[in-house]
Specification:
CATH architecture of the largest domain: 3-Layer(aba) Sandwich
Shape: globular
CATH topology of the largest domain: Alkaline Phosphatase, subunit A
Largest sheet: 9 strands, mixed
CATH class of the largest domain: Alpha Beta
């Protein structure tokens, strides 16, 4: 009953998505949900059942054991209900049921706690959970009193009753076993993908139970082989990637993807500023025909910039976006690139490369710079100065996301202006944070929202802050000699019908320098990993590219691969292949038309081509990191 109530709440909190599904599909999803709920309950009840069966055949009865069983049932069901409470806000952000990826933030517990308590909707679920604790304890006690309370005079001690007890025990054990399997087929028990009954992602997700998805992904993550990429032989993957990069001759056998990029003519002594915008997916902008007009300034800026409209983020987390944009490396599924045992090694990146040309380098973020080990990782890889929450006045910090975007921009302009006083050029990366829960929009700063919904207003505010930033910069002497790059760390859900939501990975890329670059709209495929080589191409510098990115202006690419935790995707200019490794489902879709139909059977060769590239890219990345071949060449 409680699991069903949570499923109804999921529908109520996502009426926009639920409204697109037919009543028949919704009914099937609820029936499928009953199956998954039964699996979870049977797992919970298995140990109490075994203990009760054991207890039934003992001559000496223990009331303490009975209490222990009751306590076990209460505690474990409360844990299950807590997971359901967490699942709905999680689903609202990621459009998938709860997985082990939520533990990515446990290394920053204070940051995580602040984020929870500063989001108002979480208080509803806290209250609901508190009520469920009381309800669970109350109901278990009633069930115990009516069915399990052992009076000595009612014990089945004669032979006939013992036989009945054996039969009852076999029946209960059999039902629990069948319930845990979730299906009668002998080959395999119920799987994640069993719930996927249509092309409607919401319907498919609705049928799942978040306890099933969380613990399934958690158990899978405990196996080191499941976290490490192992799609194909390393040598084959590297060979495939070398061919895709057009490498005819390796620079060195030790570094198989390193290639020397020769510049012709005089270098451009320009400054570079990269703004990595929180959650500013392409789907929020007019570049993707969003009718709400949340980003009027970015839309107008795109017409004055060299703008890419088919670029994809490496992953769906901020750390993926920062890592891929600044270091030209893809996101390995379910791996944290800046906070694992392999991150303690030098990485080739834009900061360390520009240091070789005497650039000043700085990274500016609105919150704690040590979150996700960001500050330490960047400091170790070429960033001379890291500016974060500790550098801002306490009265300007209003949430766990730190200072609001326009305040951050004011500080960034001041910091950049100080760097500009030196005769050497500068490179600055800025990470924004306002377009992220908990939502905070400052008053009295001049921003006036035009939309009604808070989530749309904060996107408006982020867009307005970019406008403010460039206005402040335009008054400075270094403005005309600076290349401004705007890209998102990742997107967010909007009008997407795919289970692997492209709106989470598709991001705008704007390169703005009115005195240096001519405006153009470019629909070619690209990725965050291409930002670093593309900037180096604009600066016309000879350097060693030991990343998996390419110069989009001079080289280009046919495919780009990206991940979303346990999902891997790859696109060309028309089609989108992806695989959900938890559900074991594979798709080929015509994403340019937002077509929900499956084309896997119609174009199997194309699907294999995209799959092979995606597997090769990630396998090569894994090998480079494992063998410490990602750093600058000596």
């Amino acid at each position: 009953m409680v699991f069903t109530i949570f499923r109804l709440l999921l529908v109520l909190f996502n009426m926009q998505l639920a409204g697109t599904a037919t009543k028949g599909l919704m009914a099937q999803a609820f029936l499928m949900g009953f199956r998954f709920d039964t699996v979870v309950s049977c797992y919970i009840l298995a140990i109490p059942a075994l203990l009760l069966i054991y207890h039934l055949f003992q001559k000496k009865k223990s009331f303490k054991l009975n209490r222990v069983i009751n306590l076990f049932v209460i505690v474990i069901y409360c844990v299950a209900f807590f997971i359901c409470c967490v699942d709905i806000p999680y689903f609202e952000h990621y459009l998938s049921r709860l997985t082990v990826s939520i533990l990515n933030w446990t290394n920053s517990p204070l940051f995580m706690v602040k984020m929870i308590f500063q989001n108002k909707i979480n208080y509803f679920f806290m209250a609901l959970f508190a009520a469920l604790i009381f309800l669970t304890a109350f109901r278990v006690r009633i069930i115990n009193d009516k069915t399990l309370f052992l009076h000595r005079e009612t014990l089945f001690l004669n032979a006939k009753h013992k036989l009945l007890n054996v039969l009852y025990s076999i029946l209960v054990g059999g039902l629990l076993f069948l319930g845990i399997r979730g299906r009668v087929a002998l080959k395999t028990p119920i799987q994640w993908g069993t719930a996927f009954i249509s092309n409607d992602n919401f319907v498919n997700q609705l049928g799942l139970n978040p306890n099933f998805t969380f613990f399934k992904s958690f158990i899978t993550s405990l196996n080191p082989d499941n976290r490490k990429i192992d799609f194909m032989p390393d040598s084959l993957a590297i060979k495939n990637i070398q061919e895709s990069l057009g490498m005819k001759n390796m620079l060195t056998n030790e570094f198989p993807i390193a290639r020397k990029i020769e510049a012709k003519g005089e270098p451009l002594k320009a400054n570079v500023v990269i703004v990595i915008m929180e959650s500013m997916g392409l789907s929020k902008t007019g570049l993707d025909n969003n009718p709400v007009n949340m980003t009027p300034y970015l839309d107008s800026l795109a017409k004055l910039s060299y703008t890419f409209t088919n670029v994809f983020s490496a992953g769906i987390h901020t750390y993926n976006g920062v890592y891929a944009t600044l270091f030209g490396m893809p996101a390995l599924m379910n791996q944290h690139p800046m906070e694992n045992e392999k991150s303690n090694q030098p990485f080739t990146g834009i900061a360390s490369t520009l240091n070789q040309f005497n650039y000043q380098t700085a990274f500016i973020c609105p919150h704690d710079q040590e979150f996700d080990n960001m500050g330490g990782f960047l400091k170790a890889n070429g960033f001379q100065k890291i500016i974060g929450q500790k550098d801002f006045p306490s009265e300007e910090i209003h949430s766990t996301m730190g200072v609001p975007d326009d305040v951050l921009m004011e500080h960034a302009v001041k910091e950049i202006h100080e760097m500009a006083k030196s005769p050497e050029p500068f490179f600055t990366a800025i990470l924004t944070g306002s377009d992220h829960e908990p939502i905070y929009i400052p008053e009295g700063h001049g921003f006036v929202p035009k939309t009604k919904e808070e989530k749309q207003q904060v996107t408006e505010y982020a867009d307005w802050s970019v406008n403010k930033f460039l206005k402040l910069c335009s008054a400075k002497s270094w403005y005309d000699s600076t290349i401004f790059v705007f890209i998102a760390d990742h997107g967010s859900w909007y009008r997407d019908c795919y289970e692997m939501n492209l709106s989470y990975n598709k991001v705008p890329l704007l390169i703005f320098a009115p005195k240096l670059i001519k405006p153009k709209m470019n629909p070619a495929v690209g990725g965050q990993i291409d930002v670093f080589p593309t900037i180096m191409g604009l600066l016309n510098r000879t350097y060693i590219n030991n990343t998996l990115g390419v110069d989009l202006l001079k080289e280009g690419r046919k495919y780009i691969a990206f991940s979303a935790d346990d999902k891997l995707g790859c696109v060309n200019d028309q089609y989108f292949w992806y695989y959900n490794y938890a559900a074991e489902n594979e798709y080929l879709l015509h994403y340019r038309d937002k077509d929900p139909n499956q084309y896997l059977q119609k174009y199997p060769q194309l699907a294999d081509t995209l799959k092979n590239y995606a597997h090769s890219l990630l396998q090569t990345t894994q090998w480079l990191i494992d063998n410490k071949k990602v750093g600058p060449l000596k």
